[in-house]
């Protein structure tokens, strides 16, 4: 598949399923009917995106035109992608649609529940167990809705202490129990966007076990407020990388154990040279793939650029143009202790010596105790003698 300027899209979704990334929808000056996949089981370079292993899927019947929507996976082996909401009118009567990776077919599931008819756009979803969670999605919409994928029933969950950023945020699943929300704001498509927080020194955390919200205080190099940015969780490093965003060109890292912010450690120059937003970001193997989006200027309202960040070495990331499908992330190993045969023998000798030394010390203590008893009597006798003295 050859991507051209006519099919460049912002607000596109991306989902990694097995060895393919599925891209759907978006905006390119008008609504976009793009639907295609990128094969990440083979090598490629980003020097010429027309030569990358694309497959056009837009011809499959049932495609719903969407922009600013959410997409989450579920089903056996994550073979289904559920598409939710969006800014286009075409989504009003098709709020939820499903694409089956195995059969390569679209369907509109019959849903029920107490989901309101509010248009929800510029949103993200998180899938966990049998639930898909979607927060906000419009001006003054501060509720969490959940889709039970076992029966396709929607429910609205409590919103006490929910973040005031109802769109343009990022949502990251942590430890299968909580969702961390970063950035975003209100009225983002107006001339004067409203940000929820002056600083990202506090983030909203949603607990899926008891459906409650809480605030997490952060420290370190606090990022500037941002909207329509990218966020990728690297579980091997317990780290979230956030990329770019409207009016911001920085890349920041959040330690999800200590909630400390820092500037991402990237060893070379690369990536987007100006503020990029409304793009997709996907962790695949040892790479973060950043695709499409738009720039914060009127000259380049949308772009078909593809960027690759090699994250195989923590705190030593680098921009590359070549993708290697065999390259995988490895967990950070603890500092190894000496375990040579010589050291092992020495350790055994020390243990044996310690045991005998301990026994010798115990024998000496017992001997001293016996001598004390013979000379002064048992401690209980001494106690009784002292009591008798006090009575006299």
Q: What's a quick, concise take on this entry?
A:
With 392 residues, the chain is mainly β. It has helices at residues 341-376, 379-391, and strands at 13-17, 20-24, 35-39, 44-45, 54-56, 70-74, 80-84, 96-100, 105-107, 112-113, 125-128, 131-135, 144-148, 153-157, 170-174, 178-182, 185-186, 194-195, 202-207, 212-217, 219-220, 230-234, 239-243, 251-255, 260-263, 276-277, 280-284, 287-291, 294-295, 306-310, 318-320, 322-323.
Topology-level CATH name of the largest domain: Neuraminidase
Uncertain runs:
1-6, 334-356, 367-392
CATH architecture of the largest domain, by name, is: 6 Propeller
The count of helical stretches stands at 2
Write out key terms for the chains shown:
392 residues, mainly beta, Neuraminidase, 12% helix, transmembrane helix, 2222_t:CDS:1, Kelch-typ_b-propeller, repeat
């Amino acid at each position: 598949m050859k991507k051209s300027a006519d099919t460049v899209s912002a607000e596109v979704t991306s989902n990694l399923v097995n060895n393919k990334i599925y891209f759907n929808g978006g905006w390119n000056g008008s609504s976009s009917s793009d639907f295609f996949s990128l094969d990440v089981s083979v090598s490629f370079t980003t020097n010429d995106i027309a030569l990358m292993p694309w497959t056009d899927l837009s011809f499959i019947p049932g495609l719903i035109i969407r922009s600013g929507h959410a997409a989450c996976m579920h089903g056996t082996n994550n073979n289904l992608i559920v598409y939710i909401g969006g800014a286009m009118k075409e989504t009003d009567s098709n709020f939820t649609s499903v694409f089956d990776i195995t059969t390569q077919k679209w369907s509109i599931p019959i849903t029920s529940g107490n989901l309101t008819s509010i248009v929800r756009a510029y949103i993200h979803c998180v899938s966990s167990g049998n639930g898909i969670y979607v927060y906000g999605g419009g001006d003054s919409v501060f509720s969490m809705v959940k889709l039970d994928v076992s029966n396709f029933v929607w429910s609205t969950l409590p919103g006490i202490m929910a973040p005031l950023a109802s769109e343009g945020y990022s949502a990251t699943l942590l430890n299968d129990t909580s969702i961390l929300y970063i950035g975003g704001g209100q009225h983002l498509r107006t001339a004067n966007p409203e940000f929820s927080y002056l600083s990202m020194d506090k983030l909203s955390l949603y607990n899926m076990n008891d459906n409650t919200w809480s605030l997490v205080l952060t420290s370190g190099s606090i990022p500037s407020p941002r909207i329509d940015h990218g966020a990728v969780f690297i579980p091997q490093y317990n780290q979230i990388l956030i990329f770019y965003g409207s009016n911001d060109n920085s890349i920041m890292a959040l330690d999800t154990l200590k909630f400390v912010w820092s500037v991402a450690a990237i060893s070379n120059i690369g990536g987007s040279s100006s503020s990029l937003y409304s793009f997709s970001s996907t962790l695949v193997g040892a790479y973060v793939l950043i695709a499409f989006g738009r720039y914060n200027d009127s000259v380049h309202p949308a772009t078909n650029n593809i960027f690759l960040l090699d994250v195989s070495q923590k705190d030593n990331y680098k921009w590359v143009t070549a993708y290697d499908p065999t390259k995988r992330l490895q967990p950070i190993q603890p500092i190894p202790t000496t375990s040579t045969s010589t050291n092992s023998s020495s350790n055994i000798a020390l243990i044996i010596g310690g045991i005998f030394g301990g026994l010798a010390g115990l024998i000496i203590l017992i001997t001293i105790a016996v001598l004390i008893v013979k000379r002064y009597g048992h401690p209980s006798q001494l106690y009784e003698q002292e009591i008798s003295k006090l009575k006299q």
